[in-house]
Amino acid sequence: MPNAAAAGLVTVAAVALAAVLVVDRSHGPTFHPSRVVCGGLVCAGAAAACVAAVDGTPRQRLLSSVAVVFSLRFMLMLFVLVPRRVLWWESICTGGGCALLFPGFVVAAATASPSLCLTNDLPAFLLHVAGSVLTTGSEVQRWQFKRTLRRGAEGCYTGGLFSVARHINYTGEVLCFAGCAMLTNSNEALVVPLFFWLALTYFYAPGLERHLTAKYGGDKAWREWQAPAFAPSWLLLAATLLCAVHVGAQQQLDAQSLYHGTSSNRPEASLHR
Hints:
The protein has helices at 2-18, 33-52, 58-81, 88-108, 118-148, 168-184, 191-216, 220-223, 233-264, 268-271. It is mainly α. It has one domain (2-256). The longest helix has 32 residues, at 233-264.
């Protein structure tokens, strides 16, 4: 039952996050109530993850720490780096999705191996860190570029991490949540990065492409920007395969540990019948 509950929780959260199909990309007030509510919901999700992990395993405490760092990163992007307007429905879907998602990750990890394994869990954690760096690092680079423009001027930023892919920040988010899903050692949790990939690839990115074309169509930098929409496909494919192999290997280790633990606890008389 815990697995079923966790699966339902992360699935609902992923659907809520993937439901953000239309985005208003015009600039809006930094502390608009919709932004504040969105940020508050994300922080509430991180707090709920911490509460769920208080008496939990090292794996669950690591996931709660990841949730706290994500909420801080989200606040930085929401109130400083990304000045676009946040509509109310987007605020509720995104914030509410995160409020469910991170406690869901902690619950999903309840039945996994309580201890962390260097060979299996370090790659998952590094994948999460790499995704976070790609997302936030690219946004910081673009923010610094925008600050160098004279007031009222517009410019399409094509340098830094964005020279690798036009939506390198979206690639980073997929890798970030793939790492989180791997840390839970739950097959059900892998639905989360899958939904992120589908939503960003087929809804967010095409809409952003149309917006950028309309806004920077006359900009030489935009016309000559030859970077692919996302990071090389082999990177995402490798991350997907790593997710599947990691979860399968860890579940096998958990099963072996459970078997040997059960065997060692059998009464001696039963072993010598």
